[in-house]
Specification:
Strand order of the largest sheet: 1-2
Number of domains: 1
Oligomer: single chain
Shape: globular
Helix content: 55-70%
Order of helices and strands: HHHHHHHEEHHHHHHHEEHHHH
Strand content: under 5%
Length: 446
């Protein structure tokens, strides 16, 4: 008996190397996510995650060239390549050659190259799940740091107190942690709602509820709204009964957090109520945003077709902004000193594209995103065994499209947008993605 007891554990050891070998093609994508766990240096420009994303693109090209099959379908090539048209036209109209080069490189990285690389490296839902869980892990890491900052008063400055949770992104990118945590909430919710694995369901649901705490203390109204809409759509896709159960659990958890742990501070309550009175008594941040939106709209009216060129919004802003626009936003805390951040974008991706790329940019870039959403939802209706990945990925894409009403491209976390678009493109456009996902559940590593 002792011989059999000691002989059984080694039999399971070969599974780990086999699983590692199987996951090897998609591990570079996971590495992009992992790199965002590292602290970000203010005004550093490119980050480690950006550098890894470049390597991922090269790896996808090399791996695809060695395989004797067509990498993308015709539909996928058109949808994923469509943004190139609008981006290239806008780059040709940039104010300086430097703006043209840097803007072109950034837009192609986020909206074309990295998403295509993700599509080429993904094979089935096990790869998708691995990336989704890496997003949840990153959210837990950044969220834990953010909650610590809130509790200890070491976060970014908010209403005179250093309580705003920003994770490792610092006060210069207050939306970074909120975006990462929101991705984690949406990914975990999608897995929890539709997975058939009971253990994964419990773990994912727990992660989603836990991540609501750092999302709350991020004080990001745009992220709150986008997360509520994305998770609400995910709940509806899972059925009314399950949606009711999840909502009841979320309400109970909120009561415990607010009543039992005192999460609901005056600053948080003020931030929540400000969502419903942005037109009655708006704060300066809302006034600035409305002014920037009006400026972007005015720029587009004068250059409706092709816009004013990539990265040209700041050069035209003052000529179209009202006197209510402040000179910048104040940032402080989280280990950094006081700084005055210039307002270089309208904080609305669609208006930024309208002003800098015109209708050509909106129709090609935003049109590509809309095509991904429509194709993804159509496949979601037919999904069975891959429903957990489908709901999570479609939820992430929906979150991004809603959040772009209040945010735009910029910051170290932007590379995650490229990964999300790649996941959505794989589900929506990859040949027989749903069939490959269904087959994956019956495969046994050898």
């Amino acid at each position: 008996m002792s011989t059999s007891a000691t002989a059984s554990p080694p039999a399971a050891l070969p599974l780990a190397p086999a699983a590692l070998r199987r996951a090897a093609p998609v591990l570079p994508v996971v590495a992009i996510v992992v790199m965002l766990c590292l602290p970000v240096t203010p005004d550093s420009g490119a980050t480690f995650a950006d550098a890894v994303s470049g390597l991922v693109v090269l790896w996808a090209v090399v791996r695809t060239s060695r395989r004797a099959r067509r990498p993308l379908t015709g539909t996928a090539a058109i949808v994923l390549g469509l943004p190139v048209v609008g981006i290239a036209v806008a780059a040709s109209g940039a104010v300086t050659p430097g703006d043209a080069v840097t803007g072109l490189a950034r837009y192609l990285q986020v909206f074309v190259l990295v998403p295509v690389a993700v599509v080429l490296l993904m094979r089935d839902r096990r790869d998708v799940r691995l990336v989704l869980w890496s997003l949840v892990g990153l959210a837990l890491w950044q969220g834990a740091i953010g909650v610590y900052q809130y509790l200890t008063g070491t976060g970014a400055s908010y209403q005179g107190a250093d309580i705003r949770a920003v994770g490792t992104f610092g006060p210069s990118d207050v939306m970074g942690m909120a975006t990462v945590v929101a991705y984690g909430v949406v990914a975990a919710t999608g897995i929890a709602l539709r997975t058939r694995d009971r253990r994964q369901q419990v773990v994912a649901a727990t992660c989603a509820l836990v991540l609501l705490v750092p999302l709350t203390v991020s004080f990001s109204r745009g992220s709150w709204i986008a997360t509520a809409l994305a998770c609400g759509a995910q709940l509806l896709s899972a059925g009314a009964r399950r949606a009711a159960k999840v909502c009841a659990t979320a309400v109970a958890a909120s009561v415990v957090l607010v009543g039992g742990f005192g999460v609901g501070t005056a600053a948080l309550q003020e931030r929540l109520t400000s969502i419903t009175r942005v037109t009655d008594a708006p704060d300066q941040s809302v006034v600035d945003r409305y002014s920037l939106w009006a400026a972007a709209t005015g720029i587009w009216h004068e250059h409706p077709v092709t816009g004013v060129g990539l990265k040209a919004f700041p050069a035209y802003r003052d000529g179209h902004a009202s006197l209510a626009l402040s000179s910048g936003s104040d940032t402080d805390g989280a280990g950094q000193g006081y700084r005055r951040q210039p307002l270089l974008s309208p904080h609305n991706m669609y208006l930024l594209m309208l002003s800098e790329q015109g209708l050509v940019g909106v129709l090609t870039v935003a049109g590509s995103w809309l095509a991904l959403l429509v194709c993804g939802l159509r496949r979601l209706r037919r999904a069975e065994r891959a429903a957990d990945c489908a709901v999570a990925v479609c939820g992430l894409l929906l979150w991004q499209l809603v959040d772009y009403l209040y945010a735009d491209i910029g910051g170290p976390d932007t590379v995650l947008t490229a990964v999300v678009l790649g996941l959505a493109a794989w589900w929506a456009l990859a040949p027989d993605a749903a069939d490959a996902s269904a087959r994956a559940s019956s495969e046994v590593p050898r």
